Amino acid sequence: MDPTERRRSYLGDVTALVAYSAASGGGSRLCIGSGGVITTCHTGTLERTKVRVFGNGARVHGVAVSEEEAGGGGGRYLIAHGEQYAKVYRLDAGEELFCLARIGPLAHWIMDAVFLPRAAGSGALVRVALGLSDNSVVVVDVGEGSAETCGKFVCSRSYLLYSMKIFCSRGEGLVYAAAGTIFNSVLVWVFPLPGAGGRQDKEVISCFPRLNFVGHQGSILKLCWSGSGDMLASCSDDRTARVWSLASLKMDAAKRASKECETLEAEKVIYGHGSRLWDCLFSGDSEMLVTASEDCTCKFWLSKARKCETDTSDLVTTLCGHQGRGVWRIAAAGGYLFTAGADGAVKRWLLQHCCNPSGIATTSLPSMHVRSFQQALPPLPRGHKDPGTAGASSAPGKKEEKSAKDWVRCLKLAGVDTMYVATNQGMLYENSVRSSSWRSLFANPRRMPLLCIEVMRPRGGRGVLSDHFICAGDVNGYFTMIAVSKTCCGPWLEWKAHEKRLMGIFLGRQDEENQVFSTDVSGEVKWWIVPCKDMLDGKVKQEPALKAKMRSPFKMRILGVDFCRASMLVICGDKNGSIMAFRYHGGSTSSEEPLDLTILMQHKHNVSPVSFLRSRGNDEVVSGGGDGKLYTYKVIPSSRKEGEPGHEALCQVGIHIEKRIAAIEEQVEMGDGATYIGGFQSSDFLVWNVTENCEVIKISCGGWKRPHSLYMGEEGASFAHVRDHVIHVQQLEPRDKSAQVLHSAFSNALTPSFHGQEIHSTIIVPTRCLGKGDGAPPCLVITGAEDGYVRYSEWEPDCATAGHFKLCASGIIGECVAGAQVRSLSYSGHKEAQGAYVTAVGAKEVVMVWKIVYNSSSEEEGCLQCELISTKEPKGGLRPKMKKVSAKDQVTDLRHLAVDTFVYKVDGSTDVIFMLVSSADASVKVTALQVDRRTGSTKWHNKVCDLVNGSRNPTLSIRWKEIESLGTSVAFTGSTDGAICCWDTSMAINSFKNALAKGEDHQCIEISPLKKFQGVHASGVNSLALKVSASEGLGQLQARVVSGGDDQALHAKEVRFRVLDGSSGGVAMTSDRGAHVANSHYSALRSVWTDGTFVLSTGLDQRLNISRLFDDEKQVLRLELLSRMAVEAGETEALSAFMDEDLCYVALAGRGLSIMQVALSSRGPPKNL
């Protein structure tokens, strides 16, 4: 059997998007074009069907769906075009695609395609019009297996175009073509429908332009017609959208027949995006215009306004939720707006909420109902006199007069419809939001303000006296528990908790007891145990017990408290952004003695308040603050011996900076694993889906200086805030109450997100190397990109669609600090241990190391678990301060260019990751990271050895291999001058291992290259691939290294080594020989891979070359090209592969990710599909 390419798939930017409503009322459908594939998707059930439209690397640039049904069966006709080709399909009601005909290749690229009404008596199934880049339109009749041109219309001004949009006016029998020319103008020309009026023209007909729209200062990237054809919108890279009127042309038949071209300016100029505009779309009534931009936002504008005014006053709303190089395509159908972009995600938004400029709450969640309520406090009960202002601060907004009028101090949402409100005059109310009913629960006998409240639902179930308790703290330091049930309520326990104001109450989350923390204004924290179970059972009341107390060393108010049972630490965060932890020693701790402070991280959130702290139960702690940052920490146990002093440490293992939210207030983790954060941005409160990276709720509330509360659960979401002494509540409830959709009710993503920017490095590995069992997806792909993210994706053959892979799972391994772009990745693992380490290097000399392993727990079996091990930042910080230095002493902002690693297992609990790293200053050095797997602690050894005397130019590529059985390690480096150096790092590595075993300090060693191969390439060596084989009995090594460069050449070299006697494990080079192929690619060669026999290479020509490395009859090393395959990922610059018997799994990355499966055999060359 001949070898062949078995299957391929593409993950990346969406280049075509069209939405339509099913004729049978079955909801809205989507057609998504990505790479050379079209995916049809039902937006309700998310059922998908894939079909490959183009091969040979061609991409789908546009899709159109017919308005009429195909054959009366509820289906439609669909046309997809890309470059000079188009294909017409019949799309049946079951979402199956059947190809009718192929059109092309045409003389020019296709810019637009639309369906036209068929001519009377025509035997064609459908008629299409194709707009070409030379400002012409070709009309084609399509039948079953046939495509016949029935007319070609050419504008007399034959300019090259950036964009074209065609509109068919069936009532007039005319077709309007709008063309965005290279001269930044829009030409509108008109021609009659072919066959209209008895005409059936097949010759070329010249048409004169009727209108010339001018005003844009940049390339016109997209055009859009209104539903009636009276208006035209254009968007440009000058960051503006313009609306043009065709009313004069539509109403004047003489003007349409005239050969004169009228020059007009825009009716409306829209400016407000921060970058170029990629797409635009009119609403159904043409009252609004939606624009999509490179700034990753979609904006809604009023389309009819004052003439030629550049203003943002007509902005209705802004949608955020994409990342990378912007939102590229938008479509609308069935009351929804769909957006897609460079990140590969397709998201759905409810137009009803987006197009309501007067609404208080907007949401992107199409599966949610939105309701708004306004509540006013009830009047004070009789006998409750005004205490005046003693001990109370003035109300927010304006000072209250000494009267019986009350105002809200704090509020708490306990569900979608239940709210508790505490007031300045000591009243506590329960409010049912929908019914606007109020119930008075408690009146403070001291007539003092209640400063904080919390809802406690006791563990152990519901009791006979109450369902739950409301914990309240007042200005005099009293802690009151109010028992609440449906029929009765009243105070249950009350005690003097603090001498000063009781400012906060926090419930324990990880203890079997009913515990609560209270804080005062001076930074004192007390830990109480409340016997709620006895109370609920109707037993005799017991007094609360003080379990422990703590005090902040800064005497600042504590805003977040939680107990980490795994490490027995009480974690606190204060109003100045500091994080601290106190050691709890169990029952031996005296409640009167303050706990010992064991961890202190001052101003971790700068000087912004810590808004919340969460302990996740496995030594992990999460904090959020007013600086817009989420930190994840891991508690590192102390290494002290029994009886010796020592301290734990909080090791930062993750950071998330949310640019859309200035001050984070809350974090919510839903049952489906999605994470949401809520916080303030200017005068709005936002809820952001961190998992899908999109905004889901936006509420205009006036800013953060007001009482507010957020609730999110499976039954919906609510947000309450006080404005102008009125409580405003916004509720969101799922439209479908079925259990299957409750977890996804807060989601609007139809497809997952991916990198939105160029991918610089990729690694593909078999999942069995990470401990995944049989039946698992065969390959895991790791990618690092310019957006600073390191992501993973799992792939397996798609049984439903022949020739395709299926994306099983994807996610984020981590994000580089400060968003530093990832330049190079390395994957290393030990053959005796499950899991592996992923190392990322790039801008700002940042080095980050993660550990990845498949989770074997019963709850999350098969899920990839990613843990940040350590981060290494430059000595001067990520953004060092400017210094006045002389020109010769100036140091540029360095970056790492390449990395390769291997792991040395010291013992059962310690790993050492050796890293060979090159920097932009032409330095190459070996560093080591020591990892204690038991405690998670790490230690960096910055200089194991320096590689000197190699090249004075920066090193672009590195390959490093250790032969552990022989105690040797060799490396190859390629630099910008085209040279390749061979290095023996054995002595330095073995010296470090010996020093580590003895507990001694290691002295940095400088090593010189074994040999420098000059002039291998005419310019930079962009990539190296290395395969080393060892003959242990003979003490010999053979290395085959393959290189690719900017000179388009592919070079292979075979180097033989002899292992030297002695403990150093060094090697000596005995021979070398090479093979060279000039002009191996049509453009710069960016990445290579080899297993010693086959060589894979790729470059900017978007081609994958497969070659064979062998000895000919004269024992001369040769490279033979076997096959050249097209790649869908644009600007390909990263390649990785692995062999599984005769199957080779290949990952190619650039602007997107291509996955291929190729059958390789030494008996013959691979063949394309």
TrEMBL record:
Cite the residue spans of the region called Disordered: 377-401
- Coiled-coil region: none
The UniProt keyword set, sorted, is: Cytoplasm, Membrane, Repeat, Transmembrane, Transmembrane helix, tRNA processing, WD repeat
Give the CC-aspect GO terms: cytoplasm
Q: Main subcellular localization, coarse class?
A: cytoplasm
Note the SMART domains from the entry.
WD40 (SM00320)
Biological process (GO) annotations held by this record are: tRNA methylation
Q: Write down the InterPro entries for this protein, in alphabetical order.
A: tRNA_Anticodon_Mtase-Reg (IPR051973), WD40/YVTN_repeat-like_dom_sf (IPR015943), WD40_repeat_dom_sf (IPR036322), WD40_rpt (IPR001680)
The residue intervals holding the WD repeats read 213-254, 270-301
Q: What is this protein called?
A: WD40 repeat domain-containing protein
According to its UniProt entry, this protein's organism is Chloropicon primus
